[in-house]
Specification:
two-stranded antiparallel sheet, 9% strand, Transposase_20, Transpos_IS110, Transp_IS110-like_N, IS110 family transposase
């Protein structure tokens, strides 16, 4: 049994460490810089306090500012638990006093680790999964930047050229972005004309150049009025189009890097054999599971972490009242959801299960979440047994006249 518990309230530049014994008595409370030398000193100090007995560490962060601390604790063979900040927030209400300090939070973290037996240990993922976690997080940031840039582009175009704004889907049309790099105003498009504009787009490798040119010139002919915002607006649109084009190029390069790193993982072939999992979604799945599902103990635990296992909200005579859990990994949920959605195209078994749930009265979203939950069991078995996916036979439904 552990002799002492060390709670760490983690921060970017500094942490606060509180050590308590089996009775909850505080043995140490100290602010420590997020520096390797200082962290090694606190590990040695707490180990000395334990006097050869077991130490349990607990932290409210499992990445970011706590990354160096976690790595040092793992390297020194220390047991480390993760307590989500939400738990600490709610637990704080049961402790005396309304004040909030780093020392109090660290004291609560240590005390919760002492009393609870259901906390998840922090385990380092394999090197490939660690790399993929950073790469996929960066990819998500870039996608968010792209969405924001496209929204700004459309908003700016509405200020002076609404007909062209509604003519194209700028999130999908490369030709439309190429068009905006040089021709952003009604007058410029009318002077260019359909034939010359189509040739100009084709010379730059744009697909469907004739259709794009026709839509753009038609939009220009719909608006003869020159708005006061046109000059500045057109300049901003050209710059935003260039930004989006650069983002797209960055995404292509990043996807190549993610795919190459993912293919080095021992489970890459297994994951890609599962319908709905391409290299990017499979890489994101690895990044958020650490590359080893054994750390989740069971497929039910994995489903709970992914947010696809409904949590009961029963009380009194009310039963069967299920809701999504409040604490889950949102990136893992998104990955499982998108993979389930994609599997409807090429997996008869997934389509049959989804259709059955819809006939039972489930909404589209509910049916997909149920499918994602079912697929986690399949994934678990595949990775456990190191076998590729085998599409099960689907029994056709019998219909009655």
């Amino acid at each position: 049994m552990p002799a002492v518990w060390a709670g760490i309230d983690s921060g970017k530049r500094a942490h606060h460490c509180v050590v308590i014994d089996q009775t909850g008595e505080m043995l140490l409370s100290q602010r420590i810089d997020n520096d390797e030398t200082v962290l090694l000193e606190i590990i040695a100090t707490v180990t000395e306090i334990a006097d050869g007995h077991e130490v349990v560490w607990a932290t409210d962060l499992n990445s970011g500012g706590a990354a160096l601390l976690i790595s040092l604790l793992v390297d020194h063979g220390q047991q480390l638990l993760y307590i989500p900040g939400r738990i600490i927030h709610h637990a704080a209400a049961t402790y005396r006093g309304d004040g909030k300090t780093d020392a109090k939070d660290a004291r609560i973290i240590a005390d919760q680790a002492r009393m609870r037996t259901d906390l998840q240990p922090v385990r380092d993922g394999d090197q490939i999964s660690v790399d993929l976690k950073l790469l996929t997080a960066r990819r998500l940031d870039i996608i968010h930047d792209r969405v924001r840039a496209i929204n700004r582009l459309r908003a700016t175009m509405l200020e002076y050229f609404p007909a062209l704004e509604r003519a194209f889907d700028y999130s999908k049309s490369k030709a439309a972005l190429t068009l905006l790099s040089t021709y952003q105003s009604p007058g410029a498009l009318r002077r260019m004309g359909v034939t010359r504009l189509a040739a100009w787009l084709k010379a730059r490798g744009c697909r469907n150049s004739a259709t794009v040119a026709q839509k753009a010139v038609d939009a220009a002919r719909e608006q003869e009025t020159t708005l006061p915002t046109e000059t500045v607006g057109a300049t901003l649109v050209a710059r935003l189009a260039a930004v989006i084009t650069a983002i797209d190029a960055d995404l292509v390069d990043l996807d190549k890097t993610i795919t190459a790193r993912f293919n080095e993982h021992e489970n890459a072939e297994i994951l890609e054999s599962m319908p709905g999992f391409g290299p990017i979604l499979a890489a994101t799945f690895l990044a958020n599971t650490g590359g080893d599902l054994r750390s989740f103990e069971s497929p039910d635990r994995l489903a709970s972490v992914a947010g696809v296992a409904p949590a009961p909200r029963d009380s009194g005579r009310i039963s069967g009242n299920h809701h999504r859990p409040r604490r889950f990994n949102r990136r893992l949920l998104r990955t499982c959801y998108l993979a389930a959605l994609s599997s409807l195209k090429n997996s008869p078994a997934s389509r049959a299960y989804y259709d059955r749930k819809r006939r039972e009265g489930k909404s589209h979203k509910q049916a997909l979440l149920a499918l994602a939950r079912r697929r986690i069991n399949v994934l678990w078995a595949m990775l456990r047994d190191h076998t590729l996916y085998q599409e099960p036979a689907v029994t056709p439904m019998l219909t009655t006249a």
